[in-house]
Amino acid sequence: MGAGRDRRSEILDAALACFVERGIGATTIADIRERAGATTGSVYHFFASKDAILGALYVDRLLRYQRDLAWRVKRHRTARAFIRGIVEHYLEWVETDPPSARFLFDARRTEAIAAVEAEIAQANAESFAMVREIARGFVAKGELEKFPMDVFTALIIGPAAAYARQWLEGQSKTDMARARVLLADAAWASVRKRSTEETK
């Protein structure tokens, strides 16, 4: 990794800390520059504005999450491990990197994200395609029920995302370790292929 990329990453890391601590709206370029220990010229060399930093940070953190998800779920050989792995990875990410999780939740609603919508759509399309391809294999093996992809995703991640928001806001009464098991179990139960006897 070159020095330029190191500096760019340092600026993005500093921006994340500022956005989480101060709020996206209240954070200024000066705040980010000071936190990164960078010169004004260095910041503007990589980013034209705070919005540009925000958009780049969003794409960076999204891609990191999706890259790690792909590495994890591609290893699984059973549908149960695959489904549980998606939920477990998501909640482990929230627990180990709350700043990134909070930022991705909060920044998605900002106007600055419009400038990187194409990048977000591309990243999501590639990640969904990977998950869909693996899921289709397990459907063909008779291990998973066949659902439309949007419904499949909602069944698996929807409850975990709702819990994650509560956890990040300090409103969860169930500790993360227990929630991770319960939500992974629930996700698997919602999409596993049921026997003829179970469906009667």
UniProtKB/TrEMBL annotation:
Pfam families hit by this protein: TetR_N
DNA-binding region ranges: 28-47
InterPro entries: DNA-bd_HTH_TetR-type_CS, Homeodomain-like_sf, HTH-type_TetR-like_transc_reg, HTH_TetR, Tet_transcr_reg_TetR-rel_C_sf
The name this protein goes by in its record: TetR/AcrR family transcriptional regulator
SUPFAM superfamilies: Homeodomain-like, Tetracyclin repressor-like, C-terminal domain
Keywords, sorted A to Z: DNA-binding
Domain HTH tetR-type: residue ranges: 5-65
